[in-house]
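Pipeline run #58 for the internal structure catalog. This entry was flagged by the ingest filter as a single-chain record with no existing model, so it goes straight to prediction. Upstream metadata was stripped on purpose; only the residue string is passed forward. Reviewer on rotation: M.T. Logging verbosity set to normal.
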Amino acid sequence: MTDFLTTTRTFYDTIAEDYAERFQDELAARPLERAVLGVYAELVGAGGKVADLGCGPGRSTGLLAGLGLDMRGLDLSESMLAVARRENPGIRFEQGSMFDLPFADGSLDGVMCWYSSIHTPDAELPRLFTGFHRALAPGGHLLLAFQVGDVPRHYDRPWGHPVAIDFLRRRPEFMEGVLKEAGFTMLSRTVREPHEDLGESAPQAFLIARR
């Protein structure tokens, strides 16, 4: 496992319960995010097989399952997956890496990467997105969410735990370019300004692409 994956897994294994409690109702305060997820569910279609990669505690996974999609969750962190399984007993969650997807070629109708590419270095994004493209069936849809910007945000000792990590911020144009090189066709770009009352300091981007 490369260093950034080890760092990511250790970070989220350490903070999982605190993170899950702090952000328990995060989607309730974000109507635009719920709208984007709803549009994505409609594009994939009822019953579509979707993998939520880097699913964390499974909040977005559960929302999409409630919208009629056949969801599976994948995450590096077993501690995060314990939360996801506890809160979504009807959904299959498994431990694994986005760089080694346990899905056959063309077996998925959708892939969601909801703020889970933010610890992947720029140089590794082509390999990541190529893997997403491989797992999607022709016409399948990818949803990608991330923070907009040029300078990473460093988190050190969250909730007093002795761990740290960088949240990488990127420009939508850059991410679209990498997606196109991996074989995707862009469908939509949504960017909203930060909600300062929710503690945000950067715009948020949501890209939908099709294989």
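catalog note: The mean pLDDT is 95.
catalog note: Strands lie at 49-53, 70-75, 92-95, 108-114, 136-147, 153-156, 164-167, 185-192, 204-210.
status: ready for reviewer M.T.
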